[in-house]
């Protein structure tokens, strides 16, 4: 069973600080990794994706990938109260189906609940 | 604007009743997915479709059915065989079947039992 593990939190961070969210995955074949933000009662929204080892920056967000350690992280700089949400990590997986078939898909973690304290 | 439209936003099911959740996308995406999310839980895959007239069961397909007669549409029916249907249902789509394509979600449908 392919798994993506996240600490459920809550992770409490003061406003203006760096929030660090972590994720590990079990499928060594995973190549693509995604971070989604989900506000309470809303659907997930894609905020970052990363395919290569190292860092990828987009505004206040930085995704980090270490395939050797099977570890993905998301850093949020200058945290704002509006960043308070649940952050879902996802990894691509190959799902084996009956009759020898299969297909690509995403395996999601259960999410980390982030609270930015004003 | 391109996007994924789910309807209705809220749905109530009576005992023994089948209900259908609508999902329409105008992103010209080939792949579409249905997930179920329970409180404090991650997303669990119900069904997915990678092309018109083809779909595959996900991890929790029992008690659900789908169709994919048009590229834009992927409705989900929650049958009376699904004994615990109360959940947040999310439809998603991606450009194609390749695993490195991000999935984009609709706004979801909340289903409850009357």
Q: How would you spell out the order of helices and strands of chain A?
A: EEEEEEEEEEE
Shape of chain B: globular
The parts of chain A where pLDDT drops under 50 for at least 5 residues are: none
Shape by Cα distribution of chain A: globular
Radius of gyration of chain A: 15 Å
User: Count of helices of chain B?
Assistant: 0
Strand content of chain A: over 45%
Residues in helices of chain A, as a percent range? under 10%
What is the count of helical runs of chain A?
Answer: 0
Number of beta-strand segments of chain B: 11
Q: Which chains have the largest interface?
A: A-B, 29 and 23 residues
Q: Taking all residues together, what is the mean pLDDT of chain B?
A: 91
Strand content of chain B: over 45%
**Portion in helices of chain B:** under 10%
The rounded Rg of chain B comes to 13 Å
Q: Strand-and-helix sequence of chain B, N→C?
A: EEEEEEEEEEE
Question: Terminal Cα separation of chain B, in Å?
Answer: 35 Å
Q: Provide mean pLDDT of chain A, rounded.
A: 91
Low-confidence stretches of chain B: none
Question: How many beta-strand segments of chain A?
Answer: 11
How would you concisely characterize the structure shown here?
The complex is a heterodimer of chains A (118) and B (114). Chain A has 118 residues and is mostly beta strands.
What features would you describe in this structure?
The complex is a heterodimer of chains A (118) and B (114). Chain A has 118 residues and is an all-beta fold. In chain A, 0% of the residues lie in helices and 57% in strands. Chain A has no helices and 11 strands. In chain B, β4 (31-37) and β5 (43-51) form a beta hairpin. Chain B has strands at 4-7, 10-13, 19-25, 31-37, 43-51, 54-57, 64-66, 76-78, 87-94, 104-105, 109-113. With 114 residues, chain B is mainly β. The chains are: A mainly beta (118), B mainly beta (114). At the A-B interface, β5, β9 and β10 of A face β5 and β10 of B.
């Amino acid at each position: 069973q392919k798994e993506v593990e996240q600490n459920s939190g809550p992770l409490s961070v003061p406003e203006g600080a760096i929030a660090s969210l972590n994720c590990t995955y079990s499928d060594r074949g995973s190549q693509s990794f995604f971070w989604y933000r989900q506000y309470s009662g809303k659907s997930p929204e894609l905020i970052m994706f990363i395919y290569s080892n190292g860092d990828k920056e987009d505004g206040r967000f930085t995704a980090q990938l270490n395939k050797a350690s099977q570890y993905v992280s998301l850093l949020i700089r200058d945290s704002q109260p509006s960043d308070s949400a649940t952050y879902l990590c996802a990894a691509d997986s190959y799902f084996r189906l009956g009759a020898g078939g299969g297909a690509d898909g995403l395996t999601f973690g259960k999410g980390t609940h982030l609270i930015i304290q004003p | 604007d391109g996007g994924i439209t789910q309807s209705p936003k809220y749905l109530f099911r009576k005992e023994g009743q089948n209900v259908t959740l609508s999902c329409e996308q105008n992103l010209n995406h080939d792949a579409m997915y249905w997930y179920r999310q329970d409180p404090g839980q991650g997303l669990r895959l119900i069904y997915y479709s990678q092309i018109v007239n083809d779909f595959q069961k996900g991890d929790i397909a029992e008690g659900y059915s789908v169709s994919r007669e048009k590229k834009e549409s992927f409705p989900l029916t929650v049958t009376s065989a699904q004994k615990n249907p109360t959940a947040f249902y999310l439809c998603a789509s991606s450009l194609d079947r390749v695993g490195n394509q991000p999935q984009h979600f609709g706004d979801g449908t909340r289903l409850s039992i009357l």
